[in-house]
Amino acid sequence: MYFRKEMKAAYYDSDQNNQLKISAIMRYMQQTSSEQLAALGQSVEWMWAEGMAFILAKSNIVIYRNPVCSEVIRVGTAATRPIGPRFIREFVMENEAGERLVSCYSLWVLVDMKNRKILRPNVYPHEIDWQEPNLLEEVGDIEIPKKVDGREGFASFQRDIWYSHIDNNGHVNNSVYADFIADALPYEELTTHGISRLALSFQKEAMHGERLAIERHRISSNEYKVTGRKADGISFEGYVELGQKV
Fold this sequence. Notes:
The protein is built from four helices and eleven strands, in the order βααββββββααββββ. By secondary structure, the chain is of the alpha+beta class. The protein folds into two domains: about 140 residues, Thiol Ester Dehydrase, Chain A (Roll), CATH 3.10.129.10; about 100 residues, Roll (Thiol Ester Dehydrase, Chain A).
């Protein structure tokens, strides 16, 4: 059973087409998961006191229709049983009539905030109400190509990490990377076709004062890979498929 939260799509989270930005979709989902854990007595503040935090490792998102500004949406989430060191969490967004707008299958890791090391799920001191997976076949773990050949559709830019990018875990918030990816896409294509699928995978945290070299490669007419590199290696990789009706 999903924990559900009713929200209204805010105007300041919307783009020129009056639709929620992909970064806002990720923020709304993150907020819902935090509130579910808080309802179970496992708030962000409790986790900090225990020296732990859940950090997103990969997010796989399918958008059937973007929520529009001021639309009332219901965000649902449930945790399913871990796979290895990764905690699995599902999200759905629906409108008031129950129409599915967004589905997300995400992988998280439990991290020791002192040394930033990954902890095994059996270290977590609370029981979690594990649910049976519902979205694995629908969304799955979307593959991000390891290598993209050729220079067609290539573009690159630098992004310095500032105060506005950092969250309360001391690093760039996962939703901000979605903005970096959206900024890397061809503007006209993004604003006329929209994102229908996104996979976003994280390798190294980006911190204040660092710089990301962001590269975009075209995979096909409507698919792109976006990579962000720090001085010491890859920070994130993203796969984007355009084609949602705008």
